[in-house]
Amino acid sequence: MPRIPAVPYAKASRLTRFFYRFAKRKFGAVPEPMSVLAHHPGALASWTLMEGSLEKALRALPGSLRDLAVYRVATVVGCSWCVDFGTMKQRLDGLDIDRLREIDDYATSDRFTETEKRALAYADAMTAQPPTVTDEQVAELDAELGHKGLAELTFVIGVENLRARCFHALGIVDQGFTSGDACRVPLP
């Protein structure tokens, strides 16, 4: 249960109802962060537009690498909603979600490529308080991903820190996307 109640459909503004219907069609359920942010329609609209823009604009990296780095941030921050949603997203993209059980041991696991290990270490370094990113990490990732890829990786890690910290602070917990209880989106 979130720390502030979700705005029910019947009490939502016309724009919020539109967002709810769109999200329900896309994910099978209205994501709880959306219904909690509905208390502030401007914040909800900004977040929804940002997420839609990100989905269309960020294409320099393979989606699997981007999603893996985002997932790592969610686990480090401790946002169970983000972990739940991220697992569902990777499952729907046909990715190996069994390896997510080894995410805390990525550095020694053979289930992650060297590029993925560097990206995950970068996510850890960006998420640490204070951040511990090194020049060497940036140089290695830049050489491998290029300027555009590194900029995208940095941006999605930063955005997930925003999401995970906001949702965690609001007490938004897993919604059942992983189990399929909330999400009726079919497998590919």
UniProtKB/TrEMBL annotation:
Keywords for this protein: Oxidoreductase, Peroxidase
Residues of the Carboxymuconolactone decarboxylase-like domain: 48-124
Alphabetized SUPFAM superfamilies for the sequence: AhpD-like (SSF69118)
Keyword Oxidoreductase listed: yes
GO molecular function, one term: peroxiredoxin activity
PANTHER family referenced in this protein's UniProt entry, alphabetically: 4-CARBOXYMUCONOLACTONE DECARBOXYLASE FAMILY PROTEIN (AFU_ORTHOLOGUE AFUA_6G11590), CYTOPLASMIC PROTEIN
Name recorded for this polypeptide: Alkylhydroperoxidase AhpD family core domain-containing protein
